Amino acid sequence: MKNKKIILIGSSGTLGSFFLKKFSEEKKIKLIIGADKKSKLKSNKNFKFYKLDITKTEEVSLFFSNIKKKYGIFDCLINSAGYTSEGSIKDRKDVNDFFDEKNWQKNIDINLNGVFYCIKHFIKHHNKNKNLQKIITIGSIYGSKSPDHSIYTNEKFFTPLGYAASKFGLNGINTWVASKFGSSKIISNMVSPGGVYNKHTQKFVNKYNKNVALGRMCSKEDVFNAVDYLLSDKSNYINGQNIHVDGGYRI
Known about the structure:
Blueprint: E1 4-9, H1 14-24, E2 29-35, E3 47-51, H2 57-71, E4 76-79, H3 85-91, H4 101-126, E5 133-138, H5 161-181, E6 186-193, H6 202-209, H7 220-231, E7 242-245
Parallel strand pairs: 1-2, 1-4, 2-3, 4-5, 5-6, 6-7
Helix pairs in contact: 1-7, 2-4, 4-5
């Protein structure tokens, strides 16, 4: 990969922490992290961490403005922060309360509004040069189709309604930005993983895999490979797409 200046939003989750690890190993990348809590990795000359609450537009604006003043204009924005089933489990007492309004609001605030704020202020503060810039947003297979609810029976978690709604909404943001700002040399795409293995029980894995043509859950490496491709110059004519890394779940 050529020299890249990347803003990674979210580094504490399953995928974000993996992205951070992979990018931090690449000397040709200058990486700025905006996240709710610091990574275990130590900052160095190519990697800097900034605490950021993406649900607050004023804080997001200040973040993008400050890093521009300090480091200049960035090439890429990766929206990896998200409120997931794991987060829902920690916040909810009743896993069967499908219409929990606090859960709904938190999904919308983080997964949808947070991405909107980050894209808004990235374009406002960083789209001022003639070089191609890229926005990559991490979606979900459940932003394109409904879950198979039966596989969550007798499990301690499920995919909340707010999660699905917010991930469906991201594709609308993605295509709108791609069509509106293509002439400003901004490319916008999504990567939507299938279920990413994260210490799930074998019982759940077996149930999930029955829906997948390749017969296995998604790995963190699978998702990173798609992101890495979109960052590269090999994808410079790909715009407004939602790339499903799901092993054939949708088919």
